[in-house]
Amino acid sequence: MPAPWSWDDKAHRWPQPFSKLRSGGCPKPYASRKPLLYFRGGCNGPTRGWRGPIWQFYPRKRANIHTASRPGALNKHEWGWDAEMEKEMRARGPKRKIEPFAANCGYRYLLHVDGNVASSRLALASEMHLGATIFKQDSFSSEHFYPLLRPWRHYVPVDRSLADLDEKYRWANANAREAEEIGRRAQAFAREHLHTGSVACYWWQLLSALADLQPFAPRTGADLGFRPA
């Protein structure tokens, strides 16, 4: 469900962290951006999961390993939780300090990878506003707007294991016009559906449907005997 703190209509109309861009959007046109895959995110997974080392199977760690063997294709910035896990990670792939969200605007292709669940703080919603081509990993979890998205229309689908990431990256470079159109359609979708008004509508429909299932009449705080604070 939509996170309330990411859709604060008193502070902004659009999702966080997109609304924090000082320019109000990406100033660089698509053709001027670097034709690289870019990922920006945290080092998710069980904190002590490096023992094993299980960390190599976390989706974002796989992207980290991809970075080491494909320095000209994937640019990845993330931070980690566990010092021991970070030591092992550095031996397998580069690790850099996470950049501001605005750094996404410098790249044509953005890699969207799950964390522990669907990426938090509405990362995909924010990324879709940027006009970049989203490479979205097949996800086991979902946000409220995912059912409306269509692969190859709003994003380039990527296998959950990232095994086909190279293939999809080569496709995008060989089909620049189609890749750019995917980014434009994603941006148009975001402008139509991913703003506070549409989210308020979603909450209204959801709560109205839940109300019909309640076998009791809701009561106010006064009815329950609570005193005003």
UniProtKB/TrEMBL annotation:
UniProt KW Iron keyword: no
Instruction: Spell out the protein name for this chain.
Output: Glycosyl transferase CAP10 domain-containing protein
UniProt lists the family membership as follows: Belongs to the glycosyltransferase 90 family.
Keyword Chaperone set for record: no
Outline the extent of the Glycosyl transferase CAP10 domain.
3-217
Q: Which domain of life is it from?
A: Eukaryota
Keywords on this record?
Transferase
Q: Which species is listed as the source?
A: Emiliania huxleyi (strain CCMP1516)
* Example GO molecular function: transferase activity
